[in-house]
Amino acid sequence: MNYYIITIGCQMNKADSERLGAYLESLGFQLADQPQKADLIALVTCGVRQSAEDRIYGLVPRFKKKNPQVKIILTGCLSDRPDVRERLGKKVDVYFNIADLPHLATKLGLKAEVGSNQGYLNLDAKYQSTYSAYVPIGNGCNNFCSYCVVPYARGREIYRPHQEILAEVKRLLAKGYKEIILIAQNVNSYQSAIVGSNSIIDFADLLKMIDSLEGDFWIRFSTSHPKDLSLKLIKTVARGQKICQHFHVALQSGDNEILKAMNRKYTVEHFLSVVENIRSLTPIASITTDIIVGFPGEGAKQFANTKKLMKKIGFAMAYIAQYSPRPLTVANKLIDNVKMPEKRRREIEINNLLKTGALKFNRQFVGQTIKVLVSDIKRGLAIGKNQQFVTIKFPSSNKNLIGQFVEVKIIEAQDFGLNGIVNQE
Known about the structure:
Elements: E1 2-7, H1 11-26, E2 30-31, E3 40-45, H2 50-66, E4 71-76, H3 82-88, E5 94-95, H4 104-107, E6 132-136, E7 138-139, H5 150-154, E8 158-159, H6 162-174, E9 179-183, E10 191-193, E11 200-202, H7 203-211, E12 218-222, H8 231-239, E13 246-248, H9 256-261, H10 268-281, E14 286-293, H11 300-313, E15 317-322, H12 340-362, E16 369-378, E17 381-385, E18 391-395, E19 405-414, E20 417-421
Parallel strand pairs: 1-2, 1-3, 3-4, 4-5, 6-9, 9-12, 13-14, 14-15, 18-20
Antiparallel strand pairs: 7-8, 10-11, 16-17, 16-19, 17-18, 19-20
Helix pairs in contact: 7-8, 8-10, 11-12
C-alpha cells in the first residue's frame, strides 16, 4: 500500500504532515513519488484563506475521477467544518482532526494502533529535511482573533512538556541537524510545569535549555504574538549563543481601531514598544511581520495609519494578505466592504513600502562575512539564509554544501535578498 501527502498552509501543517507520514509508515504504508501511484492520499488542509480552501474542492474530485478506488483522508483546518464535509461528502473516505492521529488506524479499519495513549505531537516524525527540522512545542490557540479560524480548527492551547521537546531536539542534534525551528500558534504562551514544584518553564526558559545543548546549530522560533512578547524573551535571544536574531511578530494592522475590531488585544503604541525593546537589546535582529489589508471597516484613514507604521518600523520582510471572510469567525458577520480591486491595490502599496524598508535593512550586511545555512543549489547558485532569515545567494554548483554552514562575504544588497561570494569551498 502506497501513500501520498499534500500539505497546504503553515509550518504547523508541515510538521503535522511529517508526523502523519511516520504514522502511516508504521502501519506498513510506503511513500509514493506521485499521487496517481498512491492507494491513500492524505490532504492536510488550510482554512485561513478562501484560496487555500478552494484548492481542496478542486483536488479531491480530481483524484477520485482519476482513481475511484483511491482512499482519501482529510485533516487540518477544514476537517471539522460541517459545510466542508457536506460539500465533499463521500468523496473523502475519512475526516479526522489532527489531534486524533494516534487513532487513525481504527478509522482506516486497521487493527494496529501506534501511540494511541499519547498526544499526537509526541509521535515520531518523518522529517522532510536532513538538516532543518520543525519541532512543534504546542498546538491550538486561545486568542480568538476575529478573522482567524485556528482556535476553532485546532482548539485551545496545549503544550508539550519541556522534557519531551528537549528529547526530540537531542535526537535531531545527534543525527547532525543544523537548524531547530520551534513552532506553535503562539510560542510566547508556552508553559510547562516542573514536576514536584510550583515553578513553570516558560518559552524563554525553554530557549535557554536548548541553547545550552552542545553542537553547531541554530534555533529559530515562530510565531510571536505582540501582546505576549516579553522583555525576558528578548533578553534571552540577545544573550543566546545559537538563537537566531530574528523575531516574527504579526502586526496585522497599524490602526488601533482595526486592531480592536480584529480582537488583537494590543495597540500600535504597545507594538512600537516591543519593536523598541528588540532594537535596543538586539540591534542586528530582523523583525518580520504579517499584514492584512482590506479588513472590514478599513477606510483610507485606517490604511494610511498602517502605511505610516510600515515606514516607521521598516520591516525586513512581511507576509501581506488580502482579507478573506472565514466561516465560524466573528469577522465573518461583518460587512466585507473593501472591494477586491482595492484590496489588491493596497497589497501592492504595502509591498512597495516593504521593499524600501527591507533594502535599508539588508544594506547593513554589505562588506560583511556572515554565516549562511545552505538550502539549495540552482543554476550555479547556492541559496541559503543567515540568522536574520534573509535569503543569500552565491556562486556554487557544489551540492555537498546543502545543509551546511558556509561563511559568505556579502557584495550586494537587494530588497528581498543578498548576493555574496566565498573564497573557497
